[in-house]
Batch of 3 targets.
Target 1
Amino acid sequence: MPPKKRKNVGGGKEDQTISGPSSSLEKAHMRALQEPGGPRKLSLRYGGCIYEEHKQPVYALSFFEPLPDPAAVGGAPKPQFFASVGSNRATVYKIESDGSLSVAQAYVDEDPEEILYALCWTTTVANTPLLLLGGFRGLIKMVDCQNGQIPATLVGHGNAVNELKTHPVSPALVLSASKDESVRLWNVYTSCCIAIFAGDQGHRDEVLSADMHLLGHCFASAGMDNTVKVWSLEGQGPSRRIAQNIEASFSYSTSGPQRRGGAGS
């Protein structure tokens, strides 16, 4: 996937400097910074740098943010984890409470020509970390970080996967945005493609990004066709069918007897 470039739509130089605040909100913020007792600039500390062995661009990274454990009250701070993707490799890093950084796990795809562009975190039914990876080949591979296995691969996109997003309410649901001009909604617990967002009302070029609303009832997507589209997952008409397919996807089975109503596009 080539680097994303800004188009120069103004006819002038591509990089322009804004000399001053352009809105009343920005002006009010500038005044607050100048007033005694007003907001202060954040004091940020540089934490270090790691050069990944593949020596290729690192396209995406994401922190693993598990649900809080009700049984864990107080005690020492727990280490944090985040993952990155580049080349055909995904790396999981561990940040200790003292700030030290180390490699916790690494996954190298068996296909040397694969280039991973996207990743997202979710959890298994047993509430263990599940890392989803997508890239040039259009496949979405699930890596169970508890045992290092790949329980399933989601197949359906006809071109590269550019973005992966987990549903904020249901960890079983994941969005994927692709160069094939579509966005797909998956149930990763059953490996079921619930819906394909494409066609007459879909994007006309590569879909670069997608994100879910915090409540999970809709999502937005953006692409190379210079459009932003908002899609509903609840309501009447086609949205109602999608909601029904989401429910049916939890009992989806390729063997047949447990499949209800067809959980497709």
Target 2
Amino acid sequence: PLPVRSAMNWLTISPEVEDALREHRPVVALESTIISHGMPYPQNLKTALEVEAVLRDRGVVPATIGILKGQVHVGMNGEQLEALAQRGLACKKVSRRDIAQVLAKKQDGATTVSATMIFAHQAKIPIFVTGGIGGVHRGDAWDVSADLTELGRTPVCVVCAGAKSILDLPRTLEFLETQGVCVCGYGTDDFPAFFTPRSGLPTSCRVDGPAEAAELLQQQLQIQLNSGMVLGVPVPEHLAAEGQLVEDATRQAVDESMQQGIKGNEVTPFLLKRINELTGGESLRTNIALIKHNAEVGAQLAIHFAKLGSSKL
């Protein structure tokens, strides 16, 4: 078969990632929106490298996904990560609907959960680590994150801390059920709510440990359901205490954004800035620690999945 890079000329897989995939070694995809839109330079670059290091230290190859000058990169080198980090908010935030225009116009783009899933699947990487998924927004049941529909149509396992509690979590889980998405609790029957380990809402199933999670993922891929899977990892207790401060600040920031009539793509930058102010920078520190914890779980899942000898998507 043709290598991916010649079959799909818009997508370049780094030599490191390509070698790992060919040799059936563990690989984990990472998104790039956290780099461009999550925090300022140079902290964003430092964080991206630290999350990659969590994977590398465990023998897993990281595949950070981003778009530079209309070319999708699966696995980015230091120079490419720095370019994305320096561009920051000048990079377009790319979801499924934005991919074609960013590639056609040769623009720079940072991939959301949705777009990262698409390119991970095209590169035959079935495991992707992020902080949390989007969901259905409170007060407007029509405001649904594209993450949820992507999970219904793209067979990638998203390792995350669930969804943020500022979202309408019951509707989010109902939407995922309608989309046929397996929502699996990692050592829990209770869907995690980002900084809150328990939302009080049930997951559709539970696994206890990475070996069991790998077997579930292998089965999901083998029967070709063509839908994704959420592996909800509860935040560790030592981060949950700090997380409560962040949750309270988040609720206040959301209320302020509504009072000020802030809408659309202006909401997230406003919330990030305001939450960081209200917590004295604690929100960013806790968020980074949470993502690193998810990366530890994702690494163990990838190692066990590779042992099963199934990388077929």
Target 3
Amino acid sequence: WESDQSLSSHRKLRRRRWVRNCVPMKISSMAFLVSSAALRGAAAFSARHQRRVRRAADLSRPRASTAAADTKASPEGSEAESLIIKPKTRVLSGVQPTGKLTLGNYLGAIRQWVGLQEEYETYFCVVDLHAITAPHDPKKLSEETLSAAAIYLASGVDPDKSRIFIQSHVKAHSELCWLLNTQTPMGWLERMIQFKEKSAKLGDQESVGVGLFDYPVLMAADILLYQAGKVPVGEDQRQHLELTRDIARRFNDMYAKKAKRDMKPFREPEALFVKEGARVMSLL
């Protein structure tokens, strides 16, 4: 019995020694295998990443032009050119839905919009809020607004290339107009020639609404709201565009004078002078 007990204790001692010595070795070997696999995976990922970086650098590096006229462009060069996408300048324009759109509207504005779609990021709107600054029939104005939008589409303005909308459907137009009103001096508006001309046509100065006087500020809100870079204008709208630039500059100086140019609240738009519509003689 004593010999059996000593043998059992001897086996227990050997088992403890094995656990103490061999198990950590196995665990460490497993950890080594895992870490080795991780290192190999990291190395492979790093190699793939470096190949991508070198390939991108090769594509972006300008290639020397050859004198041979029959040299064909390499596929890498064409791929690099396709990766460079230059942002288009944004253009905003609109037409009032007052009465029937005439042939002059088509020749002077809408037909030229079709050509602008390919070169610029275009926004075209029906400015019905401007139309209510003069006496109008509300029911008729609603019909003419939808009709004007339909004429845009029929004339070739592509909704896949351009944004087409109705001014009064975007509340931000009137909201921004009020904010700009608080920063626009009265003297600037009193110099507007169109207000003098239109109010003279209405006859009685007492019946002229404030909306007609404030018309240029709403136009400025239309332009500045979309950060338009260029605005198609004719001779009669140049002064209003200059006022828009003055309002934008004044607002930026008051609230973001130290900000960088591309961080200013408003972008100062530039004029895109369109060709004047052809003079259509009477057909009668």
